[in-house]
Amino acid sequence: MTCTTLRRGAAASMAALLVATGAGMAVAPAHADEKDDQFLEYLDQKRVPYSSKTEAIRLAKDFCLVRTRQNAPKWRAAYHLANDQGWTETETAHFAEAAIPTYCPRVWK
């Protein structure tokens, strides 16, 4: 065997290992921490519908990103959230009430 053949074999093995590791990480479930649990509990108490816990947490974090974006109108994040989720104004307000102190507390300041 030549040195080139060994390098190609090692590179292929390394690539396969990285792909396998990445696939395992992609399938691993997200574990909610205490603040996630409190956020979800509030949504449940207020009867805000969501498709999954992971999706609700992702939506809240995305809401905060849009809400804190410079030069963006303050209403835009809630408007898109309500339209995309099909929520009422009340459901959207409850979601924001839970998301802001949990995931974007700087909005309060």
From TrEMBL:
Q: Where is the DUF732 domain?
A: 35-105
Q: Which organism is it from?
A: Mycolicibacterium pulveris
Protein's name according to its UniProt entry: DUF732 domain-containing protein
Q: Name one Pfam family in it.
A: DUF732
Establish whether keyword Signal is in the entry: yes
| Keywords of this entry | Signal
The signal peptide, as residue positions, is 1-32
Question: Which InterPro entries is this protein grouped with?
Answer: DUF732
